């Protein structure tokens, strides 16, 4: 199952980009034998600052056709890492070819796009910087792959 992190905004070179790339590389290595990956980041940018609706249109256009759509949203479900791993494994085992994990802009994801999502995930009730959410998500993808592989990275 291919995984796309579809996000509003551009992540420039720096510590967040370095961490993101590192975790996605780890995920790709670990997930390959499990039928997970590759993972990629697709960035969209609303250069006219037209708001949530314009961002939603750009995000929607960037989604792989037929992908499971999972938004990252404060109203989403808070999960444990093993639960997230099981969710990924379930989508993979159901024969889904693509998963799109959507990270909105500063004002979040537009309500129409949220309503189209198959699932919504939250990293808690605190608001996180969107660039850090990418890093946290990539780390959780790697952690999920290690959980599914029975590896030692995640200790319960």
Automatic annotation (TrEMBL):
Specifically methylates the pseudouridine at position 1915 (m3Psi1915) in 23S rRNA. It comes from Ruegeria meonggei. It comes from the Bacteria. CDD domains: RlmH-like (cd18081). Homodimer. It is found in: Cytoplasm. Belongs to the RNA methyltransferase RlmH family. Transmembrane segments: none annotated. It catalyses: pseudouridine(1915) in 23S rRNA + S-adenosyl-L-methionine = N(3)-methylpseudouridine(1915) in 23S rRNA + S-adenosyl-L-homocysteine + H(+). Its EC number is 2.1.1.177. This is Ribosomal RNA large subunit methyltransferase H. InterPro entries: Alpha/beta_knot_MTases (IPR029028), RlmH-like (IPR003742), tRNA_m1G_MTases_N (IPR029026). It is an enzyme of class 2 (transferase). The lineage of its organism: Bacteria, Pseudomonadati, Pseudomonadota, Alphaproteobacteria, Rhodobacterales.
